[in-house]
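Researcher: Good morning. I'm working through a list of sequences from a screen, and I'd like to move beyond sequence-only analysis. For each chain I'm collecting a predicted structure so we can compare shapes side by side. This is the next one on the list. No need for commentary yet; just the structure.
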Amino acid sequence: MEKVIAGKPITVNEEGYLTDFNQWDEKVGEAIAAENHLSLTPRHWDVIRYLQNEQKNQVALSIRRVGKSGVVDIRELYSLFPNAPLKTATKIAGIPKPASCI
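Model: Good morning. Structure tokens for this chain:
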């Protein structure tokens, strides 16, 4: 399905995850964050860039792996993305929902 995000048409799946990462840019990420009642800080962007890099390297993502990444610990991840942290962070990052997320 198509959805207008940050003023441009973006293809998303039924859960709102982008289906084509090439459509993502920081304005799209900020708009998705705003939909999730988040205002992105530099720490949010550190996590988002880490997740995008891991996706690019085809690394399976989990909260535990992110927490041990050295980028952010689990407590901070939950404080940055309070509701479903990995789901929310990956959605903002424009990457697919991790298989570890129900």
